[in-house]
Amino acid sequence: MARAAVCLLRCDLRAHDNQVLHWAASNADYLIPLYCFDPRHYAGTHCYGFPKTGPHRLRFLLESVKDLRETLKKKGSTLVVRKGKPEDVVRDLITQLGCVGVVAFHEEATQEELDVEKELCQVCEQHGVEVQPFWAATLYHRDDLPFGPIARLPDVYTQFRKAVEAEGKVRPTLQLPDQLKPLAPGVEEGCIPTMEDLGQKDPGTDPRTAFPCRGGETQALARLQYYFWDTNLVASYKETRNRLIGMDYSTKFAPWLALGCISPRYIYEQLRKYEKERGANDSTYWVLFELLWRDYFRFVALKHGRRIFSVRGLQSKEVPWKKDLQLFDCWKEGKTGVPFVDANMRELAATGFMSNRGRQNVASFLTKDLGLDWRMGAEWFEHLLVDYDVCSNYGNWLYSAGVGNDPRDKRKFNVIKQGLDYDGNGDFVRLWLPELRGIAGADAHAPWALSSAALRQVGVILGQTYPQPLVRAPEWSRHINQRLQGRSPHPRGRRGPAHGPAQHKDRGMDFYFSRKKDE
């Protein structure tokens, strides 16, 4: 009897370097590539009930599903789409077809996804169907780590990075054949739902967005081609990555990586090819450095399980977090009265995207300046980010809150200094806060430091047209006073519109490993 393979796709929406499809192409007579719109992904977040999948990521997901369907059709197959829990959909296919011999999927790292895998295994066991899991979420394969069991994963990133760079080996990418096996007889491909079907409205595209891209493997591969080969932008990535405005200051791979539209191993192969043909430098290395961060957070989730979602974090640390919903609403709506924070939060709400520099600052402000439960921020990011990745999101928030596995838990960002350093002319603030557009230069970062007369001249009334700051941290005053005296608090502040500062050797991810106390 001919055997069909159900290839359950989740965060692996690509044809290139897809081990599930590659394996099934050689081990089954029929292929059933399957994507399920799981209703649990459109329910509320665990603690605060925000819709898990907001409009920006949902639109990107729908585009990615459509793109994969078109790609598979060119190979003689298609993507079967269903609304429902994967374990229920797979059970229905097994009983309906009578020829399903195996269910293959890529394994995930966090609890909700692992629970789905457990349910799938139970369904398959009940029906005598083989299960074929694979690991493909990371650059370095889980089984190739130089630590042995995942329990031995270092609790400091630098130790992890040095070990895998010295001893690890990246597996080669996999190529699908030009033609795939057909669907099993009787399988209908199904309709791809609309945003309205899933409870959301199309958010439109804000012309100010730094990420005006569509979802899908086709666009992901085109972006890499553009960023590496067409423009050589990768060769200056380290110098530009902390900018705030525009598409090309960073790779922008993250949204596609989050849904698996592009393989980290493919990025690695192209990066090594670029270095061989056009030269390696600190910038090309930095792309790899950040892929390793992504790996690390995934392996931390494997090691610590549910603890990455615990309010006490990985250190089981008691912190008296506040749960003030009024303060939180000011933060999420970009109405804290601190322009650099507000501009970033409004960019997120309008576009689903925020720069890495912005994320570090707004997270620090929420946890260290406002003292709010870090899970509020993590779940709000889960709702809105177009590049939401559960491991990276929660890993970053644990670090920001000081309850991750970084021993330097007293880190706090000076958001005024950061704004002056990375948006020295105030261009980013004025882009997203139209009520402050009349304030020239860097003064836009601290409007409360200007006189009432100066504010009236540009139509700003604090407390009416723009909020008074919710808090005023004492460490802000030195930088504000220096600015008012006509001096930049740091030469980095004079680098032009939303330019990043000069890089510091071995600073790593600036947020997590800053050596400066007054960051």
From TrEMBL:
Region (Disordered): 484-519
Location of the Photolyase/cryptochrome alpha/beta domain: 3-139
Comp. bias (Basic and acidic residues): 503-519
Cofactor(s) listed in the protein's UniProt record: FAD; (6R)-5,10-methylene-5,6,7,8-tetrahydrofolate
Source organism superkingdom: Eukaryota
Annotated site (Electron transfer via tryptophanyl radical): 321, 374, 397
UniProt keyword annotations, A-Z: Chromophore, FAD, Flavoprotein
Record-linked InterPro entries: Cry_DASH, Crypto/Photolyase_FAD-like_sf, Crypto/Photolyase_N_sf, Cryptochr/Photolyase_FAD-bd, Cryptochrome/DNA_photolyase_1, DNA_photolyase_N, Rossmann-like_a/b/a_fold
PROSITE patterns recorded: PHR_CRY_ALPHA_BETA (PS51645)
Function statement: May have a photoreceptor function.
Protein family (similarity comment): Belongs to the DNA photolyase class-1 family.
Protein name per its UniProtKB record: Cryptochrome DASH
Species annotation: Aythya fuligula (Tufted duck)
Lineage, opening ranks: Eukaryota, Metazoa, Chordata, Craniata, Vertebrata
